[in-house]
């Protein structure tokens, strides 16, 4: 009986202790979390906390489209004699990309020139009958000049000569603007047929992407964008929004077009990441590395008198490199302009740990 009484008393004491400790669970877990990350002297780097302009970011996927694009084909039939450029090569405006066999066109031009010269002689003879010269036709009445030109065959001869010159010129396929050759389909010594190649002006690109309807208030024409190809994430190029299509498609998205300068590493049709930026002034901004997770809470560490100070915060907004933060006042935290914020060496840092600030 004495043993039974002793067991009941022990159980009562344990129950009472359990009930009392349950009220302090949250505080105890927080203290354990703080202590679990404490350690010996740690080397850290710091930045001064200040209010700065924060670049709010909207991240989208887009595609590059060269600002100028023209598909070239010969204006007449013939055999391709020479191709002067290959795919990927740069051409100047007006450069001859390829040439047809010109022998037939040159022969036609010679015949047309001869017929023109004969008609010109006949015209001169007819004008002499009226004591006039070729120069006098400039002052003749329009109907009289036209009649003389037709009757002497001069009009037909001039039209044929002009046509022969055009056909000879059309044997040369010229670039309408400076750019690069893509999609080359023609081959030398084969008949010209259909599209020969495409010229793109890659000095600038249009970037086409879409935003959600809810994101529409965030974008505007002229707004800065950052373009990064998925093939090279180290390349970041500045651009700006060129146009916003004022309609929502069936998927609840709005089409946006930005423009960006051509750079090595960008090609037509490339998939890119588009980051739209908007400046928000006067924000408490810290590098992303300053904020760590402890006990499921967002925390940063301040440096005070050579020791770390555990500070609960809330992340208000983030971009690719920074956070806007505010102190978590519910946990008694505070932040002040000029605080030394630890940005490296904080992954395993605890509260009130001796630290060595590098660079000081």
Quick description:
By secondary structure, the chain is α+β, with helices and mostly antiparallel strands.
- How many domains? 4
Task: Tell me the CATH architecture of the largest domain.
Answer: Beta Barrel
- Write down the CATH topology of the largest domain: conserved putative lor/sdh protein from methanococcus maripaludis s2 fold
List unreliable stretches of 5+ residues.
Answer: 1-25
How would you sum up the major sheet?
6 strands, antiparallel, barrel
| Number of E-type strands | 18
Kindly name the structural category.
alpha+beta
Distance from N terminus to C terminus (CA atoms, Å) equals: 72 Å
Radius of gyration from CA coordinates: 40 Å
**Overall average residue pLDDT:** 88
SSE string, helices as H and strands as E: HHEEEEEHHHEEEEEEEEEEEEE
Overall spatial form: elongated
Q: Strand order of the main beta sheet, please? A: 2-8-11-10-9-12
CATH class of the largest domain: Mainly Beta
The helicity comes to 10-25%
Number of discrete helical segments = 5
Instruction: Estimate what percentage of residues fall within beta strands.
Output: 35-45%
């Amino acid at each position: 009986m004495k043993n039974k009484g002793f067991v009941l008393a022990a159980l009562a004491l344990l129950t009472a202790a359990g009930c009392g400790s349950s009220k302090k669970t949250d505080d105890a877990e927080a203290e354990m979390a703080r202590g679990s990350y404490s350690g010996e002297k740690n080397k850290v780097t710091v930045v001064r906390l200040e209010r700065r302009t924060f670049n709010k970011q909207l991240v989208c996927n887009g595609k590059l489209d060269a600002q100028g694009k023209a598909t070239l084909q010969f204006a007449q039939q013939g055999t391709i004699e020479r191709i002067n450029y290959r795919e990927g090569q740069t051409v100047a405006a007006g450069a001859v990309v390829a040439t047809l066999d010109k022998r037939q066109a040159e022969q036609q031009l010679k015949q047309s020139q001869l017929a023109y010269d004969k008609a010109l002689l006949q015209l001169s003879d007819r004008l002499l009958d009226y004591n006039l010269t070729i120069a006098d036709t400039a002052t003749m009445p329009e109907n009289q000049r036209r009649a003389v030109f037709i009757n002497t065959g001069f009009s037909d001869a001039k039209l044929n000569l002009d046509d022969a010159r055009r056909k000879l010129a059309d044997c040369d396929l010229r670039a309408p603007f400076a750019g690069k050759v893509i999609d080359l389909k023609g081959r030398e010594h084969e008949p010209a047929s259909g599209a020969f190649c495409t010229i793109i002006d890659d000095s600038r690109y249009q970037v086409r992407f879409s935003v959600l309807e809810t994101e529409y208030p965030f974008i505007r024409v002229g707004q800065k964008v950052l373009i990064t190809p998925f093939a090279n994430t180290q390349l970041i190029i500045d651009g700006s929004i060129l146009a916003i299509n004022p309609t929502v498609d069936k998927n609840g998205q709005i089409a946006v077009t930005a423009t960006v300068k051509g750079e090595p590493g960008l090609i037509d049709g490339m998939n890119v990441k588009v980051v739209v930026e908007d400046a928000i002034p006067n924000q408490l901004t810290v590098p992303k590395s300053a904020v760590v997770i402890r006990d499921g809470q967002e925390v940063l560490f301040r440096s005070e008198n050579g020791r770390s100070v555990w500070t609960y915060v809330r992340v208000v907004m983030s971009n690719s490199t920074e956070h806007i933060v505010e102190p978590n006042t519910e946990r008694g935290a505070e932040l002040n302009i000029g605080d030394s914020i630890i940005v490296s060496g904080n992954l395993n840092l605890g509260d009130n740990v001796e630290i060595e600030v590098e660079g000081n």
